[in-house]
Amino acid sequence: MERPSRQLNAFPCRACGGTLLVHDEGQRELVCPLCETTMKVPRRLREDFDMGKKLPFDADGELQRAIDEAVERRYAAPELPRWVFLALALLGAGLGATAWVLSEPAPETLDYVWGALAGLALGVLPIGWTASWMATMRLGRAAERATRRVRGRDLRCPRCETPIMPPVAPGACSCPSCKLSLVVAEGVAVPADERKRAIAEDVDADLAKAPWLEGDRLSAGDVLLVLGVYVAVFVSAFLFALY
């Protein structure tokens, strides 16, 4: 769902000093999520005609693209060991040759060759497709996990380190402590004048600390799925050859 970026206003919480974000002119009070103090929104902010104005960029979309690109760049999908592929390929060639010969009343040498080639294809191709499908599914789950990680972070001004309340919607404002122009979205607060680059660098630096992006392993269920596909293919081939 599209979440357009809006012009926001900000003011400091008098209790904890954190930055509170005002999203629309109807807000008269805010409960600071940092210290749970109820604060009145200054009148000058409520009467700001620019507040809530739609901005010509999509900070939320840029954030999600940065997450997806960082995951695709860093994620190392687990793979079956090459010796497993080789062993299954050789086994497939042997089973294929056997099935082909059993289907012929008077088998010749060429029948063994055709059977071995068919078994090799039946053994390798389904495993390759299954492994590719598992990698795609794991990449999607990794992207979802990375999204939750990045968007769940606490916000701070990149210049003065003042805590910022989580934004209800993405937008732009000025830090009330150091006057830096900011773009804020879920999990990110970056300088407005270098928005795209800063979002991408911030996301990439955070996901570089996520070891699960580069250390994923095949589970027992994944291995059983590959073996199940392999067995199903050859059982079907034998039944077809015999009947």
Structure overview:
The chain has 243 residues and is an alpha+beta fold. The chain has 2 domains: 1-56 and 154-186, no CATH class; 71-152 and 208-243, no CATH class. It is 49% helix and 14% strand. The chain has 6 helices and 10 strands; from the N terminus they run βββββααααβββββαα. The chain has helices spanning 43-46, 59-74, 82-102, 109-151, 195-207, 220-242; strands spanning 6-7, 9-12, 19-22, 29-31, 38-40, 155-156, 163-164, 171-174, 181-185, 188-191. The protein has a 4-stranded mixed beta sheet with strand order 1-8-9-10. A two-stranded antiparallel ribbon has the order 2-3. Strand 4 (29-31) and strand 5 form a beta hairpin. The longest helix has 43 residues, at 109-151. The mean pLDDT is 85.
How would you describe this structure in keywords?
243 residues, alpha+beta, 4-stranded mixed beta sheet, 6 helices, 10 strands, rod-shaped
